[in-house]
Specification:
This protein is α/β, with parallel strands linked by helices. Among the domains are: about 190 residues, Rossmann fold (3-Layer(aba) Sandwich), CATH 3.40.50.300; about 70 residues, no CATH class. Helix content is about 45%, strand content about 10%. The protein has 18 helices and eight strands. The strands form two sheets. Strands 2-3-1-4-5-6 form a six-stranded mixed beta sheet, with helices on both faces. Strands 7-8 form a two-stranded antiparallel sheet. Strand 5, helix 6 and strand 6 form a beta-alpha-beta unit. Helix 5 packs parallel to helix 6. The model has no long low-confidence stretch (mean pLDDT about 80).
């Protein structure tokens, strides 16, 4: 690889020189609006570029000060333009031109732009007017399909009118070239420079628009979007377009004619112009009385909608409607069957009220249960409820309580039986009935951990399901029934803030 690299050393050196040369070239957009400034050396091209743009171009009173292309940018009619200052060109064959001159030739030939050819009539550049005219005719083939302007620079020293007749005829040979315009300019007069710049920009914009219109692709693109529909003739009758006679007799509008017809624009100008004059939209109303045009018609009057009273027969219609309402009310048309309630309807209504109250009570009880945080709750086995409350609850939920009453009745009958020997022995030993009742309750108390489970496999499955249920709650850090709520020992809003005494103010 090293051997191959050494063999290609000369090619790499050449490419490095090309890269450096390309890096020194300015960034020129070939597609944007461009002004190319060309001419002999020292005719004022760089001075003109400094006047119309902010480009930092070196200006010196000797030839070939500009040795490369300089680009400056400016705005005209909210559009960005670029102006290119080219090195001076000498009138000699292309083969004899050096690299500095060839840059100008390439810029003129290949950039789609408006060419400004500068001439120095004072001949302070060191070249005669004849030589400058000859150079223009020699590079004229490069101006094909371009907008060209010849700028007579340094007009503050000498103008075209001050030249002799022979030289004036020589300059006229330039103006005979089609599409070439001649203007005077002086970099010491800014208004003169801006006038030349603006005229060149207008000329360039016009040429670009004409070039776009000449392209068939754009025209075809527009024609493809337009469709002119022609109705199919149903008979041989020729139906010509109808133009009213009033339109035919209407003369052409002339601003300078004192007897011209008055337009809305003229009325606007007479009454203060735009922003002050307000058009009267009621002027074209067709009413019986012209004084009615500007009357304000209210939407509401005396609290009533005006549009409800526009009908002239509204009073008669309203009276007929009221009479019909009164007749229907007397006939009992509006009487409802619900006004007469029987016993069954009353019973249904009472049940519905009871259901509503029961639902409200259940909602309130559920909210109270949720609000319990660290409050004491009575154990379930210690809650005392009477038989009457149980019977009422069972009856309310729809169970038959007759069998419960029969069992209670049997229990009361057995209370009158004589005590057996075992009972007398327990009584003599001091065993209280309350302890016996507790042991009896404990004996018959259900095993909540293992009830409903046949074997250990079901027990482990139940525990696994319980863990799965707790998993989501633990992941979301939600409070469960096993959590204890502990309040803050020191509430921050009571114990933080400014100290009252001493210099321990932390704020």
């Amino acid at each position: 690889m090293a051997t191959i690299t050494k063999k290609l050393k000369d090619a790499f050196i050449y490419l490095e020189q090309v890269r450096q040369h390309l890096g020194r070239l300015p960034s020129i957009d070939p597609n944007t609006r461009t002004l190319v400034i060309c001419g002999y050396p020292n005719v004022g091209k760089s001075s003109f570029l400094r006047c119309i743009t902010k480009a930092d171009v070196e200006v010196q009173p000797y030839a070939f000060t500009t040795k490369s292309l300089y680009v400056g940018h400016f705005d005209y009619k909210y559009l960005r333009f670029q102006a290119i200052d080219t090195p001076g060109i000498l009138d000699r064959p292309t083969e004899e031109m050096n690299n500095i001159e060839m840059q100008s030739i390439y810029a003129i030939a290949h950039l789609r732009s408006c060419v400004l050819y500068f001439m120095d009539l004072s001949e302070q550049c060191g070249f005669s007017i004849e030589a400058q005219v000859k150079l223009f005719h020699s590079i004229k083939p490069l101006f094909a399909n371009k907008s060209v302007m010849v700028v007579m620079n340094k007009s503050d020293i000498i103008k075209v009118e001050d030249l002799d007749a022979e030289r004036q005829e020589l300059l006229k040979s330039i103006s005979t070239v089609p599409g070439v315009e001649i203007m005077d300019a002086s970099c010491h007069e800014e208004e003169n420079v801006m006038k030349v710049r603006n005229h060149a920009c207008e000329k360039l914009l016009t040429a670009r628009i004409e070039q776009k219109l000449k392209g068939t692709a754009r025209v075809n693109n527009v024609l493809n979007k337009i469709h002119v529909a022609k109705p199919q003739a149903r008979d041989d009758v020729d139906r010509a377009p109808y133009i009213p006679d009033a339109v035919k007799e209407l003369g052409k509008y002339d601003v300078n004619d004192p007897n011209r017809r008055k337009l809305a624009r003229d009325i606007e100008a007479e009454n203060g112009g735009a922003g002050v004059f307000n058009i009267n939209l009621k002027d074209k109303y067709l009413l019986e009385d012209e004084d009615w045009k500007n009357d304000v018609m209210p939407e509401f009057l005396d609290g009533k909608n005006v549009y409800d009273f526009l009908d002239p027969d509204i009073a008669a219609k309203l009276q007929a409607l009221e009479d019909e309402e009164e007749r229907l009310e007397q006939e009992g048309f509006y009487d409802s069957d619900s006004d007469i309630e029987d016993e069954e309807t009353e019973e249904i209504r009472e049940k519905a009220d009871w259901i509503r109250n029961k639902q409200k009570t259940m909602i309130i009880e559920a909210r109270n249960r949720k609000s319990l945080k660290n409050k004491a709750i009575m154990p379930r086995d210690q809650v005392k409820k009477s038989f009457g409350e149980m019977e009422e609850h069972m009856y309310n939920i729809g169970h038959d309580t007759d069998k419960l009453r029969e069992k209670v009745g049997k229990g009361k009958k057995n209370e009158g039986k004589a005590l057996s020997g075992v009972d007398i022995l327990k009584k003599n030993q001091g065993i209280q009935a309350s302890r016996l009742a507790k042991k009896k309750m404990a004996a018959h108390q259900s095993d909540r951990l293992n009830d409903g489970l046949a074997d250990g496999a079901l027990r482990s499955q139940a525990e696994r399901l319980a863990k799965i249920q707790r998993r989501e709650r633990n992941r979301m850090a939600r409070q469960g029934e096993g959590d204890r709520h502990s309040t803050a020992m020191l509430p921050k809003h009571l114990f933080s803030g400014k100290r009252g005494i001493g210099s321990t103010d932390r704020r």
